[in-house]
Structure to design on (179 residues):
């Protein structure tokens, strides 16, 4: 699983550099296959499988292709991982991120976002209940609030992102640009 995690980081970096994440994702899948042969129901393995689908959804968006199927696959695997371990803050945070990415894409496409906003906010808050110091969950909560059309949500979103960056300056790279 650790090898798969390292390759997932390489895939994320490739996507951020405008390159295809597919070579690294193929290696993630190979490593993950080895791990799942040992423990097919591992919540960590399910989360990594969902992370692969989420990264592919983001790559599809960047390439102008539909991310719908990849979002569906990611959501199903995150749900199974949460069912396996309902208090795993990292899985809850990654699942909340799925809803943020999908709501961002949906808003740009003129599609409804309310369900993703509600689900993402709920997951981010559950993650913070499991780990009050989860800066990424707070940043994702803030990012979701920035998309929320309700009065006061935008201000709350900015406040949450600022707090997340104060808690962990690494959050500035991905979420600071939203301010």
């Amino acid at each position: 699983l650790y090898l798969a995690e390292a390759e997932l980081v390489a895939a994320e970096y490739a996507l951020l550099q405008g390159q295809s994440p597919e070579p690294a994702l193929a290696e993630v899948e190979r490593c993950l296959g080895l791990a799942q042969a040992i423990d097919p129901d591992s919540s960590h393995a399910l989360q990594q499988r969902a992370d692969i689908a989420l990264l592919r959804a983001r790559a599809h968006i960047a390439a102008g292709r539909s991310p719908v199927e990849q979002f569906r696959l990611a959501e199903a695997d995150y749900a199974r991982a949460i069912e396996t371990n309902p208090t795993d803050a990292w899985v809850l945070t990654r699942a909340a991120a799925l809803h943020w990415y999908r709501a961002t894409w949906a808003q740009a496409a003129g599609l409804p976002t309310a369900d993703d906003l509600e689900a993402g906010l709920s997951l981010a808050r559950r993650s913070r209940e499991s780990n009050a110091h989860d800066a990424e969950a707070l940043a994702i909560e803030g990012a979701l609030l920035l998309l929320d059309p309700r009065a006061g949500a935008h201000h709350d979103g900015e406040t949450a992102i600022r707090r997340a960056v104060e808690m962990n300056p690494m959050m500035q790279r991905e979420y600071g640009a939203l301010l």
DSSP finds nine helices and no strands in the chain. The chain has a mean pLDDT of 94. The CA atoms of residues 96 and 120 lie 4 Å apart.
